[in-house]
TrEMBL record, chain A:
UniProt entry keywords in alphabetical sequence: Cell membrane, Electron transport, Heme, Iron, Membrane, Metal-binding, Respiratory chain, Translocase, Transmembrane, Transmembrane helix, Transport
Domain Cytochrome b/b6 N-terminal region profile: 15-241
Protein name: Cytochrome bc1 complex cytochrome b subunit
Pfam families documented for this protein: Cytochrom_B_N_2
Composition skew (Basic and acidic residues), residue ranges: 525-540
From TrEMBL, chain B:
InterPro entries: bc1_cytC-su (IPR009152), Cyt_c-like_dom (IPR009056), Cyt_c-like_dom_sf (IPR036909), Cytochrome_c_Oxidase_Subunit (IPR050597)
Naturally occurring in which organism (per UniProt): Micromonospora mirobrigensis
Name of this chain's protein: Cytochrome bc1 complex cytochrome c subunit
EC id: 7.1.1.8
Quaternary structure and partners: The cytochrome bc1 complex is composed of a cytochrome b (QcrB), the Rieske iron-sulfur protein (QcrA) and a diheme cytochrome c (QcrC) subunit.
């Protein structure tokens, strides 16, 4: 029998042909794989969140193999000596076992926690990119809303996960959450007792949070993320203005092979950073907090960073209690305003912002080109104001740690937070607005007068002027006639090629000046001829 | 006037200040006799019960305490006053605080204070151990008070796990889960436990320095104190952090800082690099 020769080169084509014969996928796949994505570093920020979500799913599955979501009381007898013989919940005992007795358990737990922090951080940074570049405008308002919801669902995912180890910190957080729910007028008590199955802490909350944390919330997250990415595919990605880029096209790289390969590489980088942080930096050392007991609250009990702004708003809120003398008397505790009303307002404002802005500007057109933050000073300033507001609240959430480590009075920190919350955001608005105007003006100045060369010339009458390199033919005043097109204006000579190209390459130069002829067919490369003196462009 | 009449109106008459039946001179004489009699009685009683003429104001000080008093009169008297009775608005009376308090405050360098402020800070101690002992002896002999048991290792054979439980219930509210300390109101704070020795922790629990409550022996027994010290010294101070660099053990605050300063910064650089490769 003749042995058939195996042709490795033909294998991919043959396999693909066989698949297409059976499933007829060539046409849709071609469309998909040829999809063009514009390339800019800031478009990769959302991917950080996506990839850390993938890491979250993988490490989370590992954790569920060993975690026991039960509040039955057991006596710890694992390998961590300082807790041996202590009665605790099965959930906490299994979290300790995960940390000390399961091989690789601690790094998985720490990677899971770091990935959660990174997921939220990347969402916020990505959201800021989208906001400041105006990528949320029509037709992408829906995707902006989905993105905002992703933050809040991620917030819930983080909080339920934070509660699962059932250590002192978790329980303190749960106690605060139950207090927040109780503060809601009329429905508060019913809400709390239905969630906790009676009085706090009850015996069911860990099991309920577990199923929410591993099934319901991740399911919701996957659904929202799929819709988010689907809409990016459907509505196409926005792009920066530039040569050849219009509101009607997308200039970039095809999905396959380069874009997909780069994304694969970027996933590895994100995974690597999370793994490094999980291995090098200790996060949430649950063994120091001990099992949760209602009378144990440690100093420096803070929530994770994305919840800290609510902790801060609670700390800053004055003790204004409203007593309503109906029947036996109703009370609206001060906790209600900073922890229920404030997030409600924030959700409303953030999701509705695209519509508010469109209404304000009466701008109902499609926008596929991004705007530089400086070109829309009002929006940039509003964004700066929101960021300042959030930062003041977040810092106030950790104000006891700041007060202690920097030797500041805690009372002074609280008052600084209260005053800062009112003063800093308007200040941020003003400063951001002025910065935008200044940057705009500088762009226009370069377009009109040219690039500063650094050459100072003395005129015959003794004056000194700096020689400018115009960007285009100048008119009789020596002014260029270029219009601003919403993209970077070159402001350095090497951007114009006047000083030779900058060395390309990120970590090491990828271009080397040619010294010898590469092949006999090509003439040797001549050094660039000396350029003539750069003039101011003035005509005499 | 009959005696009947006198008896009837006696009280009213005296209240109204009517001239009494006896003459002025006789009344004065009677008062003088009564006064002399009372004075004689009181003086006699005093002579019977009072100590001898050799008695001093204070019991004699032992050698170490006398040395301590000498140190006290140079370094502490400004705020704590003569005989450690305290000076209003400057320093409290030290009568009855015991040598435990002296050992903690002076031995950890908190006293003498650099200035009047919310709370004395730990500093390099001004006095040697010997001088601290002498000062402690002086204060002890002055008014008694709690004392730290002898020896430098106060947590031998103690139960670390029980200590951990007690620490979390009684100490972690202020000193934090990792013993790194925490803020209190108006510039006051619970200090870090890292530099504290066994004796200092014990003394602090006994004497309740500055803003710390007193944990007397009837609240936390000496054995339980030893357990707590064992937990602090063996777990919080000598435990290697199993998860890697502990970020100062400040809780989620520094973790949030780290994810931005390390995670996000590293990944933004990575995205700059990857997007630059086109």
């Amino acid at each position: 029998m003749k042995r058939r020769k195996f042709d490795a080169a033909a294998l991919p084509a043959k396999t693909a042909g066989a698949v297409d014969d059976r499933f007829q996928v060539a046409t849709p796949l071609r469309k998909l794989l040829n999809k063009v994505f514009p390339d800019h570093w800031s478009f990769l920020l959302g991917e950080i969140a996506l990839f850390s979500f993938v890491v979250l799913l993988m490490t989370g599955v590992f954790l569920t193999f060993f975690y026991e979501p039960a509040m039955t009381e057991v006596v710890y007898n694992g390998s961590y000596a300082p807790l041996r013989g202590t009665p605790m919940s099965a959930a906490y005992a299994s979290s300790l076992d995960l940390s000390f007795d399961v091989r690789g358990g601690l790094i998985m737990r720490q990677m899971h926690h770091w990935a959660a922090l990174l997921f939220m951080a990347a969402i916020v940074v990505h959201m800021m990119r989208v906001f400041f570049t105006g990528a949320f405008r029509k037709p992408r308002e829906t995707n902006w809303i989905i993105g905002s919801l992703l933050f809040w669902v991620g917030f819930l995912a983080g909080f339920t996960g934070y509660s699962l180890p059932d250590d002192g910190l978790s329980g303190t957080g749960l106690r605060i959450a139950s207090g927040i729910m109780l503060s809601i007028p009329v429905i508060g008590s019913w809400l709390t007792s239905s969630i906790f199955g009676g009085e706090f802490p009850g015996e069911i909350i860990i099991s309920r949070f577990f199923i929410a944390h591993v099934l319901l919330i991740p399911g919701l997250l996957v659904a929202l993320i799929s819709a988010h990415l689907g809409l990016v595919f459907k509505q196409k990605h926005t792009q920066w203005p530039g040569p050849g880029r219009t509101n009607e096209n997308v200039v970039g790289e095809r999905m396959f092979p380069r874009y997909a390969l780069k994304q694969g590489g970027f996933f590895m980088v994100v995974f690597g950073v999370i793994a490094l942080m999980g291995g090098l930096f200790q996060i949430n050392p649950i063994w120091y907090f001990g099992p949760y007991e209602a009378w144990v609250v440690s100093a420096a009990s803070q929530p994770d960073w994305y919840v800290m702004f609510l902790d801060g708003s609670t700390r800053l809120m004055p003790a204004w209690q409203i007593n309503i003398p109906i029947g036996d008397g109703y009370v609206i505790p001060p906790l209600f305003w900073p922890t229920v009303v404030l997030p409600g307002i924030l959700v409303g404002l953030s999701t509705m912002y695209p519509f508010l802005e469109a209404r304000q500007l009466k701008d109902y057109k499609h926008h596929n080109l991004l705007q530089r933050p400086r070109d829309v000073p009002a929006r940039t300033a509003v964004g700066a104001m929101a960021v300042a507001f959030y930062i003041v609240l977040t810092l106030s959430g950790g104000n006891d740690v700041i007060a202690d480590k920097f030797h500041i009075s805690l009372n002074a920190m609280t008052w600084a937070g209260r005053i800062g919350l009112l003063v800093v955001p308007p200040l941020a608005y003003y400063v951001a607005y002025r910065l935008c105007l200044g940057l705009q003006q500088h762009d226009r100045e370069v377009l009109a007068h040219g690039v500063e060369t650094g050459i100072i010339k003395r005129l015959p009458d003794g004056r000194f002027v700096e020689v400018h390199q115009p960007l285009a033919a100048a008119d009789h005043d020596g002014h260029g006639e270029l219009d601003y097109v919403g993209w970077v204006v070159p402001k350095k000579m090497n951007r114009l090629g006047a000083l030779g190209p900058a060395i390309r390459g990120f970590f090491y130069p990828i271009e080397r000046p040619a010294e010898a002829p590469v092949s006999p067919g090509h003439p040797p490369v001549e050094p660039r001829p000396e350029r003539e003196e750069i003039t101011s462009g003035e005509r005499r | 006037m009959t005696s009947d009449n006198d008896r009837r109106g006696g009280l009213l008459a005296r209240l109204r200040g009517r001239p009494a039946a006896r003459s002025r001179g006789r009344r004065r004489l009677g008062a003088a006799v009564r006064l002399i009699a009372a004075l004689t009685l009181a003086g006699g009683a005093y002579t019977v019960f009072a100590p001898g003429v050799q008695a001093q104001e204070n019991p004699p000080l032992t050698g170490a305490a006398a040395e301590g008093k000498a140190l006290f009169d140079v370094s502490c008297v400004t705020c704590h006053g003569r005989n450690a009775q305290g000076v209003e608005g400057r320093g409290p009376s030290l009568v009855g605080v015991g040598s435990a308090s002296v050992e903690f405050q002076v031995g950890s360098g908190r006293m003498p204070m650099a200035r009047q402020e919310a709370q004395a800070m730990r500093k390099p101690p001004v006095f040697t151990d010997e001088q601290v002992r002498q000062l402690g002896q002086y204060i002890q002999e002055l008014g008694g008070g709690p004392q730290v048991p002898a020896g430098n290792d106060l947590h031998r054979n103690a139960d670390m796990a029980a200590g951990g439980e007690l620490f979390r219930i009684n100490c972690s509210q202020c000193h934090a889960f990792g013993g790194g300390g925490g803020a209190l109101s108006s510039g006051k704070y619970a200090p870090s436990l890292k530099p504290a020795s066994d004796r200092q922790i014990y003394a602090a629990m006994l004497s309740g320095p500055q803003n710390m409550p007193v944990f007397g022996d009837n609240q936390i027994t000496p054995e339980q104190k030893a357990d707590i010290i064992a937990y602090i010294q063996e777990t919080l101070k000598h435990d290697q952090d199993q998860g890697g660099f502990n970020l100062g053990r400040y809780g989620p605050s520094t973790e949030g800082l780290a994810i931005f300063l390390i995670g996000i910064v590293a990944l933004v650089f990575a995205s700059l690099w990857i997007a630059g490769k086109s």
